[in-house]
Amino acid sequence: MNPSADRKLTLIGAGLAGALLATLLARRGWSVDVYEKRPDPRNKGYEGGRSINLALAERGLDALRRAGLQDVVMAQAVMMRGRLVHPQDGGPPTLQPYGLDDSEVIWSVHRGRLNIALLDAAEAAGARIHFNQRLDSVDFERRVALFVNDHDRTARPQPFEALIGSDGAGSGLREAMRPHVALEERFQPLGHGYKELEIPPAADGGFRTDPNALHIWPRGGYMCIALPNTEHTFTVTLFLPMQGEPSFRTLPDLTAAREFFQRDFTDAMPLMPDFDADWTNNPVSGLGTLHLQRWRMDGRAVLLGDAAHAMVPFHGQGMNCAFEDCLALDRHIASAPDFETAFAGFEAERRPNAEAIQAMALENYVEMRDSVDDPDYLVQRALEQALARRHPGHFVPRYSMVSFTCVPYATAFERGKLQRAILVEATRGCATLQDVDLANADALVRERLPPLPAVPA
Ligand code: FAD
Predict the structure, then answer these.
(1) Which is more confidently placed, 166 or 43?
(2) Ligand 1 midpoint to CA 276 (Å)
(3) What number is the average pLDDT over the span 87-107?
(4) Considering only 146-155, 356-365, 447-456, which range has the smallest mean pLDDT?
(5) Which long-range contacts (CB under 8 A, 24 or more apart) does 378-381 make?
(6) Which of 1, 156, 374, 383 is the most buried (most CB within 10 A)?
(7) Which pTM does this prediction carry?
(8) C-alpha angle 21/304/357, rounded to 5°?
(9) SS3 label, residue 88
(10) Would you say 357 and 409 are in contact if contact means Cβ atoms under 8 Å apart?
């Protein structure tokens, strides 16, 4: 479709995906209006209210590069080379590198600052962002959307041509579409929640522990993680069942929480002098996976990002996937003859990939909290890295395909299954990599794995 100044696109939500998509569309020449329920974070401070930092990987970086935002974002990112696993016995932590070298790393970025950089870029590209405007309801027949300012209760009807829902897991557009389209919506709660705590800077202003890693304290059914921030702090997140033993329910007060941390996260406790205040003041939030069979309503509305496929955060891919959605939708809108074709093509391309990363994110929770210190896992991982070096472009660890390439998630998921079977088979009865018959493992790779297809630019 040819963009033109009199053909409007209306985006709901100026979070991570909304602000990026507005930039891409406005640069193509579309007239773009974005309605965001919160106030402008550049005036009032960021009111995100959750996950202060995020892991940015290649897919997200690719999208930022295409939007010309790589330099501004990366200037404030902290490199994470791998998982630094803290054992329960308080012994020294061990680093499990994510990739083969420093070209294969992920980055910790600040959610609020990233959002602000994206808002600036969207406005510089010509998009108009309307803050304090919550989508309340939609009259799809007349193509009029109603926005409400939750501060002064004023309501504003706006005509639209097509609505794009980048309004997150609790999407107002999805709710408005529900009576008109069979979305086949299913929310699968994880049964685990999370609470955020903080490791502040040391007395000399530096980091209290290694900044270039994602710290994990795996404890079987639950875990803590910590990601570094440029202010020399770490955001610590406890992931724990909501019920059972132990769970958020069995930690009803500060005394119980302190005892739990002193027992299970012994080496983390001294790093958190503000534990009492953080535990008391920070909420417990739930987690889950949102499944939708339909993301669109003919040419009038489409969903993307968390609004279409919210996932559990254990692969650090929700934002990365949402950014990939933005590139895809922008591309489909540019090449299709009308919005209906564009939205259908977008959904057909992205839904299988979203489903694949949702499944891998759930699997990664078990790996992070349970397997990273398991002997079978460790020998399989050692073989995985050996095979990655011996068969470049052929045997690529699943984590690497997801985090360091733009290979479609669905391809990574399917190849990951083949590769896992090879690792399990080749390491059976082996305690270390030295015990593995590498010639046999090489033969399995050649026999079962075709070369990884190139990803179109
Ligand atoms: P959001 O970022 O939620 O943006 C939605 C926007 O829409 C918001 O600004 C909201 O105010 C606005 N809005 C909502 N309703 C309305 C309405 N009715 N009208 C107008 N505006 C509205 N992802 C990663 O890639 N890496 C990570 O390390 C990572 N860690 C995470 C850790 C945790 C604990 C959690 C919960 C998530 C994590 N994620 C991570 C996932 C990531 O946060 C989301 O996938 C990402 O924010 C999705 O972007 P979005 O733009 O679709 O939604």
Answers:
(1) 166
(2) 28
(3) 92
(4) 447-456
(5) 379/427, 379/430, 379/431, 379/432, 379/433, 379/435, 379/436, 380/423, 380/424, 380/427, 381/96
(6) 383
(7) 0.97
(8) 115
(9) coil
(10) yes
d(CA 322, ligand 1 centre) in Å: 9
CA distance linking residue 452 with residue 450, whole number of Å? 6
E strand or H helix at 321, and its extent? helix 318-335
Using the mean position of ligand 1's atoms as its centre, give its distance from the Cα of residue 207 in Å: 28
**44 in ligand 1 pocket by Cβ < 6 Å?**
no
Atom of ligand 1 nearest to the CA of 318: 45
Q: How far apart are CA 238 and CA 108, in angstroms?
A: 17
In 3D space, the residue among 314, 335, 301, 49 whose CA is nearest the CA of residue 166 turns out to be 301
Report the DSSP pairing between strands 214-218 and 82-85: parallel
Q: Which two tokens stand for residue 27?
A: 């640069």
The reply to whether ligand 1 has any atom less than 6 angstroms from the CB of 322 is yes
The DSSP 8-state label assigned to residue 269 in this structure reads: G
